[in-house]
Amino acid sequence: MDAIFQQLGLDHTFFYQLAIFCVLFFLLSRLYFKPFLSLFETRHKRTVADREAAEKLMAQAQTKFDDYKRRLTEERLNARKEYEMILAEAKKEEALLLGQAREEAKKITQTAIDAIGKQRGELKRELEGDIETLAKTVSEKLLLRKD
Fold it and tell me: Is residue 145 part of a domain?
């Protein structure tokens, strides 16, 4: 074996270096590599967990947003129906009030026509009674003018 080591150019320092390397590797793996790798793994787990939580939150937000849009659409439809119902009631009430106003206007007009008819009759009777006196007065005045 010494011949092989001499051919490779290895002497007793190789074993010292190998022992130092193994001790350093053991110490560094315990003190540096394992905590560093566990830190990476913890960080990776947290990142994945945070990403999954963010995806869940985004899914919940999208669900709530869809629910909000659905409810908003329903409320708009309900508001539209209520608006149309109120508008229909207002039109019915308007038609009723207009009908009442027309009836009242007809009554007032008929009352006025009746009153005018009565006044006309009274004036006609008065004028019939006054016609003879007016005719006499006019004829007397005409006769007096000719003289």
Answer: no
